[in-house]
């Protein structure tokens, strides 16, 4: 059950006034940021599929845990989908800087625990993790930034639910959106055959995002390569998609998020609570770019410099 104050009408920051956000910050400091993409998802999935995945997870976890959610980011690193119309791609560098700016803004107002939910499974992870690491190291030592992705948060339930190898436009993500946002799936257009990824990627390629893998080798591909592999845009057989499968997959991850948020509320360190070593240079968010020693946050522990390597 949500423990949001009764007079807060929404978990979404953009649906609140600044005074309502300030009221929340007087008692809590956790924010969720849903990040997805606008890219083709085959004949059965809408272009906003990845963002709807992130929105659904963020909103449902926030309502249960009583935290706030930042407006969703509808764009991601989608260059490999640009062969099909409607896809809007941004560079990984752009997503990296956008994520940094969002986290800087939230941190300035007092959100010291930020959860980035990536609905664009895998592809957005490098810039999101880089943003989180670089901010925490160089600018926001008192802010814990977590990165959540269904690839990792839903691994165990995925293997129980799915009946086909899962890749882009697959049974799991379309079932999840079908359950949570029914109008945004076209059930009469599910592909019945996936791309031949083994031929395209070798025996070392990942042909099932939630499968059990041995040794793997990553081969990035272009939008032209993908169009040749999957002319309809889908890399998966999604014909066995079903809302009930989506419910099991989705609710399992929401349960995990709620448990994680409960842990965050009790978390006392070291991450986000350890002071940089005396004299360490840390950038001040929102400054003119000059660097200064980081101010000490009350209740944190100063880390002693170690003589060992």
User: Which shape, going by the Cα principal axes?
Assistant: globular
What is the average of the pLDDT values?
Answer: 90
| Distance N to C terminus | 47 Å
Class by SSE composition:
alpha/beta
Superfamily (CATH H level) name = Creatininase
Tally of DSSP β-strands: 8
CATH architecture verdict: 3-Layer(aba) Sandwich
The SSE order reads HEHEHEHEHHHHHHEEEE
- Contiguous uncertain segments of 5+ residues: 287-309
Biggest sheet, in brief?
Answer: 4 strands, parallel
Helical residue percent band: 25-40%
Strand coverage percent: 5-15%
What is CATH's topology name?
Rossmann fold
Number of discrete domains: 1
Number of helices: 10
| Highest-level CATH class | Alpha Beta
Cross-sheet strand order for the largest sheet: 2-1-3-4
Q: Indicate the radius of gyration in whole angstroms.
A: 21 Å
Please characterize this protein's 3D structure.
The protein contains ten helices and eight strands. The protein has 309 residues and is of the alpha/beta class. The protein has one domain (13-272): Rossmann fold, CATH 3.40.50.10310. A four-stranded parallel β-sheet has the order 2-1-3-4, with helices on both faces. Strand 6 (281-283) and strand 7 form a beta hairpin. The longest helix has 24 residues, at 243-266. It starts with 17 loop residues before the first helix and ends in a 7-residue tail after the last strand.
């Amino acid at each position: 059950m949500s423990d949001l104050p009764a007079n807060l009408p929404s978990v979404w920051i953009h649906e609140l006034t600044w005074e309502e956000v300030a009221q929340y910050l007087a008692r809590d400091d956790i924010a969720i940021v849903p990040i997805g993409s606008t890219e083709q998802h085959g004949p059965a999935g809408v272009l906003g599929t990845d963002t709807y995945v992130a929105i659904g997870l963020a909103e449902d976890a926030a309502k249960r845990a009583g935290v706030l959610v930042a407006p969703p980011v509808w764009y991601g690193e989608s260059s490999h989908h640009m062969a099909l119309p409607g896809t809007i791609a941004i560079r990984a560098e752009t997503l990296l800087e956008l994520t940094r700016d969002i986290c800087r803004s939230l941190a300035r107002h007092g959100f010291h625990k930020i959860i980035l939910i990536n609905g664009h499974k895998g592809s957005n992870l490098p810039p999101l993790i880089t943003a989180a690491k670089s901010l925490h190291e160089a600018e926001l030592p008192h802010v814990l930034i977590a990165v959540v992705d269904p690839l990792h948060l839903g691994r165990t339930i995925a293997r129980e639910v799915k009946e086909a190898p899962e890749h882009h436009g697959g049974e799991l993500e379309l079932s999840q959106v079908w359950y949570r946002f029914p109008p945004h799936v076209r059930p009469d257009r599910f592909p019945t055959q996936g791309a031949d990824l083994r031929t395209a990627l070798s025996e070392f390629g990942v042909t099932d995002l939630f499968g059990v893998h041995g040794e793997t080798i990553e081969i990035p591909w272009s939008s032209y390569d993908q169009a040749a592999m999957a002319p309809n845009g889908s890399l998966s057989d999604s014909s066995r998609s079903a809302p009930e499968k989506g419910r099991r997959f989705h609710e399992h991850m929401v349960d995990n998020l709620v448990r994680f948020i409960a842990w965050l509320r009790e978390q006392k360190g070291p991450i986000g609570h350890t002071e940089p070593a005396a004299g360490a240079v840390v950038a001040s968010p929102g400054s003119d770019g000059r660097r200064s020693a980081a101010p000490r946050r009350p209740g944190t522990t100063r880390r002693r410099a170690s003589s060992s390597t």
